[in-house]
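Quick one, C-alpha cells below. Sequence please?
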C-alpha cells in the first residue's frame, strides 16, 4: 500500500467513526495568538504540549526555520490574515535548536537538486532572471539571531498593527522554551 493509500484508508475510517468530533472548534483562536514556527517533525506534538495549547487555541503557520524571508510573501500574508480576519492579538515566532536551516549550505542544496533532476540550465535561468538562488536558499548560523530577525520583520511591517510580537527558541528534545524577544517590552 502506498503512503497516499494508507492516509486515505485511515481517513475513511476516521470519518466513518466520527473521530473528528473530538476536534470540533471554530476558526477563531481561543488564545487569540498566531504562532510562526518551523516545520520540523519533532515539533508537531511537542510544541503544542510545551505551550499548553490544544486544538482551537491558536493559529499556527509553519515554514522551514520559522523564517520570514520576504515581507510580502505568504508567511506575512498568513500572519496578517490571522490578525485582521481571525481575531489573533499576539504573534509568537518560535525557532528551535538543531534546526535543518541552521548552517544550511545553498551550494550543497543546489547539488542535491541537480542529483534529483533539476538541470544546470534551470538554475542558470533563475539566476539570470534576477533570483539569487544561493541567497534564497541560505540558512542561518544562530537560531536566536534568526528568530530576532523574523520578529523584527513582522514588528516593523507597514501593515502590522500595534500588537506584541514575541520570539522564542524551543529545545526539540525537552520542550524547554528560551525567551529571545519579549514583545511586551518597549524599546
Amino acid at each position: 500500500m502506498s503512503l497516499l493509500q494508507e492516509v486515505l484508508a485511515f481517513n475513511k475510517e476516521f470519518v466513518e467513526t466520527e473521530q473528528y468530533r473530538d476536534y470540533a472548534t471554530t476558526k477563531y483562536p481561543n488564545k487569540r495568538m498566531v504562532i510562526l514556527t518551523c516545520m520540523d517533525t519533532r515539533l508537531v506534538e511537542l510544541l503544542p504540549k510545551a505551550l499548553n495549547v490544544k486544538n482551537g487555541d491558536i493559529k499556527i503557520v509553519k515554514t522551514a526555520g520559522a523564517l520570514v524571508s520576504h515581507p510580502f510573501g505568504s508567511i506575512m500574508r498568513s500572519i496578517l490574515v490571522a490578525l485582521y480576519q481571525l481575531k489573533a492579538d499576539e504573534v509568537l515566532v518560535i525557532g528551535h535548536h538543531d534546526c535543518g536551516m541552521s548552517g544550511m549550505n545553498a551550494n550543497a542544496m543546489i547539488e542535491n537538486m541537480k542529483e534529483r533532476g533539476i538541470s544546470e540550465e534551470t538554475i542558470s535561468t533563475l539566476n539570470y532572471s534576477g533570483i539569487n538562488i544561493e541567497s534564497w536558499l541560505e540558512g542561518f548560523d544562530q537560531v536566536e539571531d534568526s528568530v530576532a530577525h523574523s520578529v523584527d520583520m513582522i514588528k516593523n511591517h507597514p501593515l502590522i498593527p500595534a500588537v506584541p510580537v514575541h520570539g522564542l527558541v524551543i529545545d526539540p528534545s525537552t520542550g524547554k522554551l528560551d525567551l529571545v524577544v519579549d514583545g511586551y517590552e518597549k524599546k
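The chain has seven helices and five strands. The CA atoms of residues 38 and 66 lie 4 Å apart.
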